[in-house]
Design a protein that fits this description.
The protein has 2 domains: 88 residues, Arc Repressor Mutant, subunit A (Orthogonal Bundle), CATH 1.10.10; 41 residues. It is mostly helical.
């Protein structure tokens, strides 16, 4: 006997978005394996590079969509590996500023050398379909931010570079 599971259209779309995201991420992870740089580390390095300035742990946590403590532990490991450096934080309550090191720059470049799989996957959509999907995803993300997050997915400097707005949505 098959289980009787009813999903709303919203639940179905949410499930489809999640499984599609996971499939694309798995393809990208496989593509990145030869670089020796994990997706997580690459994302941190990309975030630091994209911010274009020293960046706080809180901003990296925001970019990663992870909690502060988990992100802080990851950043400590990356610092021990020589991928990032920390500046500041000498005084009580002063934020630590993170920067990408030359070794981190090299790792980021290695992680980006093979970067075809996502474009290949997206190529099954026409230009109009991609534009429409982008518009829909922006709209969904902004609505989700108003329902469950304090901030947009990216800090203001990076959000403006990506054309995403840098603060909480006001719709």
């Amino acid at each position: 006997m098959e289980p009787d599971i009813e999903m709303s259209n919203g639940q179905y779309l949410f499930t489809l978005l999640g499984t599609t995201f996971n499939a694309v991420m798995n393809a990208r992870k496989k593509e990145m394996e030869p670089s020796g740089v994990s997706m997580t580390r690459s994302q941190v390095l990309w975030g630091l590079k994209g911010m274009g300035r020293a960046t706080t742990v809180a901003e990296i946590a925001q970019i990663m969509g992870r909690d502060y403590q988990t992100t802080s532990q990851l950043l400590k490991r990356m610092e021990r590996e020589g991928l990032i450096g920390r500046h500041g934080g000498g005084r009580k309550r002063s934020p630590v500023a993170l920067v990408i090191t030359p070794k981190g720059e090299e790792a980021l470049q290695r992680s980006l050398e093979r970067n075809e799989v996502v474009d290949e996957i997206m190529s099954c959509l026409s230009s109009d379909e991609r534009d429409y999907l982008i518009a829909c995803l922006h709209k969904l993300r902004e609505k989700a931010v108003t329902k469950g997050a304090l901030y947009s997915p990216f800090p203001a400097p990076m959000a403006s570079k990506l054309g995403m707005g840098g603060g909480p949505s006001t719709d």
